[in-house]
């Protein structure tokens, strides 16, 4: 790092030859090898082959996101009758917001790592102490994230956090997936199913408005498997705002239990990825802002929609909408969240 601190990389490997490599910088996943229908491995996440590019060029490639994933309007929220001003670091449609924790979110921090090994899974525990006022957020927060790679070809991510003051928290992981293989094609031919009958629509600044809108009869209906590219260019104001899909789906399961959120399938390789989570929402981002300026690990440029994100989360801008599931973390209590990406093939 510029300050002389070292960054370490840890590789988790299961009994089937699947691998996940993780940096202590931002908890970034730099490689994820998954088998296709012929049991051939390919790296299915976008990224770089050097640390400097992750530090200076990365559009949140495959990192941990916090304290608050997604956008908060104008970087403001009120808690216990006090208004907090966060760092505004994004302005879609020239409308300012705080995105993914501000200028220096958890994706740009160095985490402390402890490797873990169990009979049926290999893991890495990452911890970070976020001081009171970091990014404008109240409270000293202790964050722990466990990455587990199981012998059932699942990447399990467990989050926990506690604070000495009331605060807000919304942690997620920002993998960019291409199940054909990193650098090989767009994701338009992938088929996606989401167990969600509603979205939280956005305004011209990509800020959730507070509405919860049914997807039936719209290009956002993925209740049955649909090819991603089939409707992405439909005439729809929501698609125009985001130049494609970049929205939060309100999952059918809202009780905090561990449930299936969706499934991604790539017909060309046969790879399948199921998403399971305790979270009430999932952000599907279709790589709309990739524009061929970034060169990836394979040496190939990342073209428009060459990767997608499925970020499990609480809803965007939740602190400013009382009808959304709460993201408040009370002092002395513990935030817990679990998400699992299960890989297979057809």
Overall description:
The chain is mostly beta strands and 346 residues long. The chain has a single domain, classed as Beta-galactosidase, Chain A, domain 5, CATH 2.70.98. 3% of the residues lie in helices and 38% in strands. It has two helices and 26 strands. It has helices spanning 51-56, 237-242; strands spanning 9-13, 19-23, 29-35, 41-43, 64-65, 71-73, 76-79, 82-85, 97-99, 112-117, 121-130, 141-150, 154-163, 167-168, 172-173, 191-194, 198-200, 213-214, 226-227, 246-250, 259-265, 271-277, 281-285, 309-313, 328-329, 334-345. The strands form seven sheets. Strands 10-11-12-13-26-22-21-16-19 form a nine-stranded antiparallel β-sheet, with no helix packed on it. Strands 18-17-20-23-24 form a five-stranded antiparallel β-sheet, with no helix packed on it. Strand 12 (141-150) and strand 13 form a beta hairpin. The radius of gyration is 19 Å and the shape is globular. The protein starts with 8 loop residues before the first strand and ends with a strand.
């Amino acid at each position: 790092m510029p300050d002389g601190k070292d960054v370490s990389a840890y590789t988790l490997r299961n009994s089937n030859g699947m691998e996940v490599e993780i940096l202590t910088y931002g908890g970034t996943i730099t490689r994820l090898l998954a088998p296709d229908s012929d049991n051939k491995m390919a790296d299915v996440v976008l990224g770089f082959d050097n640390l400097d590019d992750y530090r200076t060029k990365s559009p949140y490639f495959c990192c941990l996101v916090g304290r608050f994933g997604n956008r908060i309007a104008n970087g403001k929220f009120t808690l216990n009758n006090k208004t907090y001003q966060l760092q505004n670091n994004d302005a879609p449609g020239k409308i300012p917001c705080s995105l993914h924790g501000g200028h220096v979110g958890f994706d740009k921090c160095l985490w402390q790592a402890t490797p873990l090994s169990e009979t049926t899974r290999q893991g890495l525990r990452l911890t970070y102490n976020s001081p009171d006022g970091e990014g404008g957020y109240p409270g000293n927060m202790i964050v722990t994230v466990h990455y587990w790679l199981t012998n059932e070809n699942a990447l399990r991510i467990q989050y926990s956090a506690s604070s000495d003051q009331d605060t807000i928290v919304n942690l997620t992981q920002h993998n960019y997936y291409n199940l054909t293989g990193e650098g090989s094609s767009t994701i338009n031919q992938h088929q996606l199913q989401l167990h969600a009958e509603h979205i939280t629509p956005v305004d011209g600044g990509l800020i959730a408005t507070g509405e919860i809108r049914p997807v039936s009869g719209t290009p956002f209906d993925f209740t049955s498997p649909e090819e991603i590219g089939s409707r992405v260019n439909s005439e729809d104001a929501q698609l125009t705002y985001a130049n494609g899909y970049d929205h939060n789906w309100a999952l059918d399961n809202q009780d905090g239990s561990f449930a299936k959120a969706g499934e991604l399938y790539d017909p060309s390789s046969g790879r399948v990825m199921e998403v399971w989570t305790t979270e009430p929402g999932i952000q599907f981002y279709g790589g709309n802002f990739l524009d061929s300026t970034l060169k990836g690990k394979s040496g190939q440029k990342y073209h428009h929609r060459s990767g997608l994100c499925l970020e499990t989360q609480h809803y965007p801008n939740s602190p400013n909408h009382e009808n959304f599931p709460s993201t408040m973390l009370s002092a002395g209590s513990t935030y817990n969240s679990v998400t699992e990406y299960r890989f297979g093939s057809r």
